[in-house]
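Anyone up for a design puzzle?
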């Protein structure tokens, strides 16, 4: 149900914001690129959209990581999609190349998403998309070793240190990759880039070597060294 609602929101906001291409309006058709084997999840949303707006929705599946590259070729030829799925870290390049149009979305609908997820689709305070799915990390623990998850990274470090003294392992994490270590760095006040006056990132303000970033990286580094 959540997938259907979210997909409907993506399609509806594009139409309501008058971002559907002139070609789609003239043909009475909306072209959607969806990820491989994911189109079943938006069937109900597509059906509802077609009934509400009297517009035919054509869904084509292709790997979402390749959609932007295909858009670079198909867009100028006028055969690109009206709606597509891309990783949010490809947003900046797509906007700079003129491949995406700003998205007009009511504030109330924006607030339905977490600030971090909707913020990932803003560039210089301009919204270009909405999140379809959000990844997060989970902790898996062995109840034969601990009764419940420990309540701090320091506690995990102490546990891991004791385990290593017995030639065993404690916490295993890919802390050498910032995707996994960010959960320790961010809460300590660390950041990657600061913001400029327009709400975009300031590449001249790197926060990983600031006090918060260094504090946040200390324990992950110590755990890696164990």
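Challenge accepted. My sequence:
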């Amino acid at each position: 149900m959540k997938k259907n609602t979210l997909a409907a929101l993506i399609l509806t906001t594009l139409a309501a914001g008058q971002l559907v291409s002139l070609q789609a309006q003239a043909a009475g058709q909306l072209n959607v690129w969806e990820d491989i084997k994911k189109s079943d999840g938006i069937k109900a949303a597509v059906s509802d959209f077609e009934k509400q707006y009297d517009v035919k929705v054509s869904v084509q599946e292709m790997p979402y990581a390749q959609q932007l590259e295909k858009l670079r070729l198909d867009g100028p030829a006028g055969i690109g999609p009206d709606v597509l799925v891309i990783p949010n870290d490809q947003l900046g390049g797509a906007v700079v190349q003129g491949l995406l149009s700003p998205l007009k979305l009511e504030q109330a609908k924006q607030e339905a998403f977490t600030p971090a997820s909707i913020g990932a689709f803003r560039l210089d305070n301009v919204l270009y998309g909405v999140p379809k799915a959000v990844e997060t990390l989970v902790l898996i623990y062995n109840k034969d070793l601990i009764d419940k998850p420990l309540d701090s990274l320091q506690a995990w470090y102490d546990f891991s240190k004791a385990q290593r003294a017995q030639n065993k392992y404690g916490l295993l994490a890919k802390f050498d990759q910032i995707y996994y270590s960010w959960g320790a760095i961010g809460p300590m006040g660390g950041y990657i880039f600061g913001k400029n006056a327009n709400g975009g990132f300031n590449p001249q303000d790197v926060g990983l070597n600031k006090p918060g970033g260094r504090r946040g990286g200390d324990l992950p580094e110590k755990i890696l060294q164990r």
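A detail worth pointing out: The longest helix spans residues 2-16.
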